[in-house]
Amino acid sequence: MHQEATARNSIRVSETVYHLLEMRKPRVLAVCSLSLLLSGAIFASAQNAQLTSGKVNARVESLLRQMTLEEKIGQTVQYSAGFATGPSASNLTYDELVAKGSLGSMLNVVGSERTNHYQHIAMEKSRLHIPIIFGLDVIHGHHTTFPVPLAIAASWDPAAAETVARVSAEEARADGIDWVFSPMVDIARDPRWGRIIESNGEDPYLSSALARAWVKGYQQGDLSRPDSVAASVKHFAAYGAVIAGRDYNAVDMSELTLRQVYLKPYHAAVEAGVATVMTSFNSLNGVPSTANPFLLTQILRNEWGFNGFVVSDWAAVGELKNHAIGDAPTVARKALEAGTDMDMEGNLYATVLADQVRSGKIPQKVLDEAVRRILRVKFALGLFDHPYTQPGPAYTPTPERRAVARKIAGETMVLLKNDPVEGVGNLLPLSAKVKTVALIGPLADDAFDLQGAWTVTGNPADVITLKAALGKRLGDKLLYARGCGLLPAKDEAALKGVTFTSTTSAASTEALADEQQSIAEAVEVARKADVAILALGEPSNWMEGEAASRTTLGFTGAQQQLLEAIVATGKPVVLVVLAARPLELKWAAGHVPAILQAWSPGIEAGPAVENVLFGDVNPSGKLPLSFPRAVGQEPLYYAQSPNGRPADGDLSHMPLNAQQKMVSRYMDEQNSALFPFGWGLSYTRFTYSYPTIDHAQIPMRNIALDHKPLATVSVDVQNSGSVAGTEVLQLYIRNTSASVEQPVRELKGFSRVTLAPGETKHVTFALGFDELNFYNAALKETIEPTTYDIWVGGSSLATAATSLKIVE
Ligand code: BGC
């Protein structure tokens, strides 16, 4: 990225940054002399007015008065009557349970026929005719499979997330689904954790902007619409910080970090009106999240004013027994009292609550409150008035849906590297002069894994692979070799028995009988071509997502060997990385001229990659997390805390002496990321003016606890290349003197700007209390007299700077 000062003489168009677009509600003022202290509780307010409207409340109370204890408990119970995404409760007779009013919600029941079956029983046979609420994991599209959430985060485009959520809601509702278990907004800073692919990455500011967009797209501000669904923000809380990146492990962190970093995106979702929250599997500082009153009552209800309901994660109430905090009745009581309103597949609320309520051990009002919260969501969704789903035609992706999926997939691709090659110039975009292209690698034609992990209803048959798309463009100028499998043959065979959803199959991971032979064949294919495109990554359905932690971050199977063999031919190589977690790309970065991070792109994988490789789409994605040089750096993130012995710059080539040794460094690797947060290249060049600020000095007395801007940072960005392009401008701050040490850099604004060749746009970023505050030692959000360094540029390495002083 180029960040030189540039002449400001071209067209000027004001761009508004995303954070200004957010609904800004005035907050109560409370001023202290030197610092401003803000307790979340001051701002508690009902977050989703629809859930507690007078009409909904009246209907809920009237129903509650008629309910027996068993019927009340029934509302808190959820079972999966389809495939299992975890250990199952038992073989239950769901028809019977529904008829008795002993089951309030079901998951993994999909399609109008199946959902209507249970809904008819609930509405016609159960005493009080309370509808079932049907939930499902709709993670990156329902039938139309979009790129995985981490890829969408790489677009830095909340409008894209909102579109994906809106399309998903429409398709899911037509399939009888009222409620989706999305978005997952766990801050994820450790790619050993497979669920990083479901996250928005490492940064609380970016993740919060995306959290709001996902919720808005699913719920569309009105749960009663026939094409909106209730969302469930998950997993509350801090699940992304499991120790050593091992799934389901414990989390141990200071409350300061919890509040300043990890809680932010969940809070953003709650402020956006999310109807439900899902607990997390992990314990937090010794207390399992599913039975954690600090999280579920103090923060969620009392501080944030959340008025929807809380569902446990899969079997998490039952699994509290494994956390060794009590026997079955005790853990169920703890979960309910802490604020977990619904037990997903844990089979404990159904079995051990009734006696405890009867005996008074659990106060009746605790159960009533949980039931009230669940019923409110059912009423707000209109389920009592429109319980059934009209059967529709079988879904096939329309050209319009495909066009949306392709456009969004194109926005998510990050051009990591694009070096000149002798006689060719920059290798990408591929020039029309290139005659023969060799497409090589196990992901080139793997519809199953190109969809990405965690698609329940996605159909691999809908996926256009790279081989199909490039074949269409190049005809017989495209040569192809698979080269190797994604995993060694024995592992593939073992994984074939494992299926998580009804539609997945292991067919695409077909093992190759003789891998050395097939690598040799791929080398021959590369030799015949002008350029080789390598489609490598990891098997998304087996090694990404839940229960998919890794201790290494290399390409799986023999792919690294394949890559090295093709590079050794001397042919120019374009590496397309089709993995949705950051892999270790150090060798590739040192030997391959062009690298495109393409994640798991969904049904339009092939056309989206093809468009970028051939320059029909100019890449604009930016990394939503840091890519490491080595797995040992993890957790690696840019917003590091300072330390007393900082290591400056690249120490890897320095002779080791005492001065360079006794600093915060690794002996065998640099500290920095291989590709940093915010990084992404374009086929054009963007030049930045130095940023300016309209109020460089602000007295403390002018600072109010509201959302109003205190100062505006402006910058001009010019497209100084010869093709149109989109740049994601990023604003970072550093608080240089605070009572609690602050990160060396923090993202506080971003803006996607599209520029024609030669065009300049004027971009402004507002800085107010929201952007400048931090948590002090008393855990209050505050601003103190200080100087903020401010940078604007195209990545977290931005150098063009200005500053803002807060004075007494
Ligand atoms: C996952 C959740 C998911 C739930 C329901 C759990 O295993 O952690 O993210 O929503 O299953 O399928």
Chart the SSEs and their pairings.
Layout: E1 14-16, H1 18-21, H2 54-66, H3 69-75, E2 77-80, H4 94-99, E3 105-107, H5 112-124, E4 133-136, H6 149-154, H7 158-174, E5 179-180, H8 204-219, E6 230-236, H9 255-262, H10 264-271, E7 276-279, E8 283-284, E9 287-288, H11 293-303, E10 309-311, H12 328-338, E11 343-344, H13 349-352, H14 354-358, H15 364-380, H16 399-412, E12 414-418, E13 420-421, E14 425-426, E15 437-440, H17 447-450, H18 466-474, E16 478-481, H19 489-495, H20 515-527, E17 531-537, H21 540-543, H22 559-567, E18 573-578, H23 586-591, E19 594-597, H24 605-613, H25 658-661, E20 686-688, E21 692-693, E22 697-699, E23 709-719, E24 725-735, E25 746-755, E26 760-768, H26 769-772, E27 774-775, E28 781-782, E29 786-793, E30 801-807
Parallel strand pairs: 1-26, 2-3, 2-11, 3-4, 4-5, 5-6, 6-7, 7-10, 15-16, 15-17, 17-18, 18-19, 22-30
Antiparallel strand pairs: 8-9, 12-19, 13-14, 20-23, 21-23, 23-26, 24-25, 24-29, 27-28, 29-30
Helix pairs in contact: 2-15, 7-8, 8-10, 16-24, 18-24, 20-22
Beta-D-glucopyranose binds next to loops.
Descriptive account of the structure:
By secondary structure, this protein is an alpha/beta fold. It has 26 helices and 30 strands. It has an 8-stranded parallel β-sheet with strand order 10-7-6-5-4-3-2-11. The chain is globular. Strand 27 and strand 28 form a beta hairpin. Beta-D-glucopyranose (BGC) binds next to loops.
